[in-house]
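User: Before I run my own analysis I want an independent prediction to cross-check against. Here's the chain; please return only the structure tokens and, at the end, one sentence I can use as a sanity check.
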Amino acid sequence: MAQERHAKQDADYQPLYIQDQVDDHQRQHQHGDFPRPEQTKNPIASTEYLSSSQLSYSEPYTPAHYPRSQKSSSIFSATGYLLFLVVVSTLLFVFTSWFVQAAFSGEVGVRVSQAFGKLLKWEVGDALAVLRVSQGVLSACTTLALMNAFELLQWALASRDRGISVPSFLGLSPTTAPWGVAMIALSKASRLPERLWGLIRVALLAAIWLAGIVIFVRASVMTAYDTGYTYDVTAGVGQFNGSYVPRYLEKIKAVEPSYRFQIVPSTILAWSYSLVWNSLHVISGTPIDCKDCDAYLLTGGVIMTTPWLPEGYDRYPLVNIDKAPATQVQFKRGMDSSDGFTDENCSTYGSSGNITLGMKVCINKSKASPGSYVAGLYVCSNGTANNACSQPGSLPNLTTTMSVYGLSAAAISARSNFSIMSAQQSHLSILNPNIDLEGYKAALDWILDFNATNLPPTSAIAEHFWNAQDQISSPYWSSELTRTFQSLLTFPLWFFNPNNYGNPDLEVRDVVQNLPPQHYVKASLTRPFTKIVLDKGMFVAFAVLEGLSILFIWALLIWLWITKPRLPQITSYPLVDFAFKAKEPGYTGEGFGPRRAGIYEADGQELRRRMRDVRVTLRRDEGASM
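Assistant: Structure tokens:
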């Protein structure tokens, strides 16, 4: 009975107007200044209550037409929030990228730090906090902008006459979870455009998420330096110059011309047998062409700079010396069987008195390693006679293959004790195959010939090896003796270079002008601070991922401005927007569309199958201004 009663009521019901008439009539009352009459079943309202002043008979009613400028302004107002988000995201992206380069890179970071003073000289925690906040806000703003852009896109596509398919609408909707979007993209029931929209949304969301992670992958910690004062110096260690040896020996001989023995200052003896482990002058280097070699980088340190260090600036405990000439001496233990020595290559130092002490040192060019040199130290157990070891046969010995390289290096030394803290050597190194062996052997004779200097045998350098004959034959215990031998071989190369006092023209406190130009560099008083260095490749990945997301949003925003689609008033409640502003094309009833059996019980897969051919378009209500 109830169904029959409802059916009869529907049959008796007659609409006042068809939709076009309702729209025209309603617009007429909206544009007039008279009250709207109550609706009656008569399709033509009575006009008896109107005065003549309220009537106009000039022209029949013409529907209102909105100028293009009003339509343009509506699209700009509809996209204002998106414009704000994408501008903020772009500015944050630029700031984050700049800040990473300024505060989290290596040499570039130091230069920017010097340029901006104390602005970027932050410790690890402060800089990391700023980066994390800016990157987090960037990800949040980009995500919000992307969600808003997809929401505008879904309504722009739905405003077309054909509307948009339900899977595409759901794939773009901000209410659809990422997993649901992925299911649409992977579903066999989805068409290619529906898959593409789903994949684009998932990919861009993943890109924003990954960008916040990859930027910190492979990060490392380094020490940077805050500069307090910079000044000009001469620094570095150049190549060995054999012509300095006789000139220097004449210079020190002139100190006491009547003294008939050779003068060797005690500091020279002290340096000569301990040079390679003296942090004032030498630091361990990276072997250039062999893994098991001992490499020593001769930078000169701060102790060989002229002028002396400036006073003051107590907050800056270090001295950074720019890249200056350096020498690297590399030792490989032992020598090839094809290499050897003749008597001309060797010098013997010893005594034949009560203390039978002596040793023989040999130096020659290597045949097995062209450009390198072989050296040997042989202990004369029973002393020497006729410039040779008294004991025939095998002698306790140390042998090595020595290579000398010229390169450049920047050194950092402590102001308090002049120790070299670290050094950065250049990758370009040049092997020196033309050492003046005559001058080199003359320098060795000067420090090793204790008879020429009238030193007691027990006070000579030879005593150190003669008293450790058992240790020389042991690979373990010979380590210290090997370092001493390497120091003796390195000393002439270090002392008789243009920027050391083996050069008779060098002054103690004043800068001389006749050094090779590479020795004139700058030194800075600095203080260290720790900073994080982000990997360059990971930063590029961050920039690409974040940049693509922002670029997509800009492209979509510009497309909206150009096409000017008829957008509804979009609120912050997308479920309400869908319920009241969307419908199936051609449907005029309440709700989204005709009831479809089984939708209530359908799961996600069944829902995608049933809604595959359903489309979404905008509902145009009365009074809606487009």
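Sanity check: Residues 5 and 11 are 10 Å apart (CA to CA).
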